[in-house]
Amino acid sequence: MHPHSLPFDPTSPDTAALLHHLNPEQLAAVTLPSGHALVLAGAGSGKTRVLTTRIAWLLHTGQASPGSILAVTFTNKAAKEMLTRLGAMLPIAVRGMWIGTFHGLCNRLLRIHHQAAGLPQTFQILGTQDQLSAIKRLCKQFGVDEERFPPKQVQYFIAGCKEEGRRPRDVAGIDPDTRKKVELYQLYEEQCQREGVVDFGELMLRSYELLRDNDPLRAHYQRRFAHILVDEFQDTNRLQYLWLKQLAGDEADGQLQTHASVIAVGDDDQSIYAFRGARVGNMQDFLREFDVQQQIKLEQNYRSYSNILDAANQLISHNSRRLGKNLRTEQGPGEPVRVYEAASDLAEAQWMADEIRQLLKSDQLRHQEIAILYRSNAQSRVIESALFNARIPYRVYGGLRFFERAEIKHALAYLRLLENPHDDTSFMRVVNFPPRGIGARSVEILQDSARSSGCSLHDAVSLVPGSAGAKLNHFVALVQVLREQTQGQNLRTIIDQMLQASGLVAHYRADKDGADRVENLEELVNAGESFVTLEGFGRDAVALPVDEHGVPTTTLPDLVDGDTGETLSPLAAFLTHAALEAGDNQAQAGQEAVQLMTVHASKGLEFDCVFISGLEEGLFPHDQSAGERDGLEEERRLMYVAITRARQRLYLSHAQTRMLHGQTRYNEKSRFFQELPDSALKWLTPQRNSFGSFAPRASQGNSYGGYSGYSKGSTGSKTETFASPPVPVQKATPSHGLRAGTAVFHTKFGEGKVLAIEGTGDDARAHVHFGRHGSKWLALAVAKLTIVA
After folding, report:
1. Residues contributing to the annotated binding site for ATP
2. 260 and 285: one domain?
3. Cα(517)–Cα(661) distance, integer angstroms
4. Residue 452 lies in a domain
5. Could you read off the pLDDT of 690-721 as tens digits, one per residue?
6. DSSP-assigned letters across all residues of 610-650
7. Among 129, 444, 576, 668, which lies 20 to 30 A Cα-Cα from 209?
């Protein structure tokens, strides 16, 4: 007998086996009677298990057939996991079931009903880049001023309209610019229809309109799908919610008459995608419009210890308009949540590297069970540098390492051209970026001229005739003027001037999604200043004057590499450093590695040990959201997500000073610290109310081994004696205590051995060999060397 035709017997052995692994809350959700329900599923509460078992239970008890179930997930990974689990639980063919993402299910619907939807049977789907290319073709065809209407902004405008369910006729042109974008939206639609293609937004909108406008077809699917289940409901946008309403029933006299049982599973406390159009208010609308009578809260957490959950619960309680739940666990309190205050962002990163090294050395954790989370992508640069020098393999999850990001590669290419105008690779990368009207054909003519003349692209520019040659000459002149302007400037000034003169910052500021890229470019200024200081140049070391071929015309004693004798300017040394860091220490496929990621990227993941860095006002919570209630509540939800990624150990850190947006900032610690329970926290450094005064605070337990910069004490004691946190040594004195053979540690280069000492007092220099970076002469008045016992 087929499973779905079995009579329901809750006491049968088969049914008991299906349900035995569920706790009471999960069991209630799985065995809900027909009708609408909201399942508030807290972090780590077994949400996927409940969804899958609910479907299996409906099939096993004969309440549903495979074809009568529609389950919507947000990722292909989640859909595949659900199908795999179902296949293992019941002997049914799961491949034909309607379980998938919103876009995947809409694609399926449109393929079946392509004629009714006005599409060719073989319609193609445009990816994001393909869509942008299509808009660029359109702009070129109709002579659109791309400076005034950048194709990417047009793309965002169209996507935003579709997410709101609006066609061009539905958009009010309140000003000339908006009216022009509406006109381009209309032309884009006509072009897509002519070519038989749809973008991702069109998949949703066309499917919604198909159901809305075709009564017989809508009625067919309303009869077919008796059970609709929606995962991650807090992340749905307006159009997705409207699409679900079309499948669930019809509105009459302002009332929704439903035909299906809809179960929405989600967590309003984890709604962190408002910037993508997610609407946490859909959960409240669902309760009201569907007249939901059943609400079940999954509050038992199987992931974290109670100190971590207590911190998460108390933090999120400060948000208003919550549906409300309180996570709990049976695992016990576990380790306290450790809090660390660093003198600077560099010291914070160094502390994390030291702590991770000890965790790994003690064999308590493996690399991949440790994650470092940050609010802004730009924060990763300092952390990557610390891990690089500590020889700790790491992987940037869901993104690129700092020196591998496109905007940073563009900036480095400009800097390389300042050092060497004959660097053809760098020339090719930025000759038309930001766009300056130098097309592929012009570049091809330039390359041919360079080949035939046996010279660099830079030198071949004078051989290119016409308007192409004029534009190329303008680019060469831009680089030449910038080279002249930056002679005798320090590295920070060089980078800053390059970012402005090249147009990179202005280009990304005009991009709707360019804020992260601008932050990364500003972080490059910080990277340069940190480099020259740690390298021993000193922050005010200047570039060497060069001739027209980029060759230094003078030699400064402090800028001679002690190992090779090669003359290096701070810029040349920095470019070498960037190349080395970009090409080293990134974990290979399959290699164990510490995970680095933004908090947004961490959602859905979990780790034994989590570091949340940069908990300062203006950074986390971000300054763009601090002035708005909705924005601040979204930031608090983001912090809640970050905390609940941790299973066993959780570290929170902040810095008194931080280089942000190219400037040193003196930040107050995040308000979130005041929203955490004292009983769950362990301060590794003396707590301060502000950065000028200490505040005693109850302290709990100790880190294992006592290596974290604080002394041992009794568990639960109210006071503790703190040692000074590890900070870089101060300016060396004449009695530096170094001699040939001394083992030392440098914050940038790691461990090394002194080969020789020369000079006295502030002029003293040490020749040190570092295992990874080779031999270097370091000025002891500047370099931060610690003697290794």
Report:
1. 41-48
2. yes
3. 11
4. yes
5. 433 334 343 343 333 333 333 333 333 333 33
6. EEE---BTBBTTBTTTTTSHHHHHHHHHHHHHHHTTEEEEE
7. 129
Range of the domain at 182: 128-195
Cβ atoms of 600 and 586 within 8 Å: the answer is no
State how many domains the chain has: 5
Q: Alpha-carbon Rg of the chain, whole angstroms?
A: 30
Q: Report whether 599 contacts 374 (CB < 8 A).
A: yes
Consecutive 10-residue averages of pLDDT for the chain (789 residues): 39 70 93 93 89 92 91 85 85 81 90 92 82 89 87 91 92 87 94 89 95 94 94 92 92 78 92 82 91 92 95 95 90 95 94 95 87 92 90 83 85 89 85 88 88 87 88 92 87 90 90 83 85 66 48 41 48 75 53 90 93 94 77 93 96 91 81 95 77 39 34 32 37 63 81 82 76 72 76
Both 248 and 392 in one domain: the answer is no
How many other CB atoms sit within 10 Å of the CB of residue 586? 18
> What is the reported pTM?
0.70
What is the pLDDT at residue 558? 41
651: left (phi over 0), alpha (psi -120 to 50) or beta: beta
Residues 566 and 480 grouped into a single domain: yes
CA nearest to 312, candidates 298, 327, 324, 300: 327
Neighbours of 505 (CB within 10 A): 21
Cα dist from 540 to 496, 537, 570, 730, 762, whole Å: 14, 8, 10, 18, 17
Residues 523, 446 within the same domain: yes
Task: Report which of 239, 216, 241, 230 is spatially closest to residue 70, judged by C-alpha positions.
Answer: 230
CATH code of residue 279: 3.40.50.300
Catalytically active residues, by annotation:
47-48, 231-232, 270, 645
Neighbours of 278 (CB within 10 A): 20
Residue bearing tokens 């409207």:
242
User: 191 in helix, strand or coil?
Assistant: helix
Helix (H) or strand (E) holding 70: strand 69-73
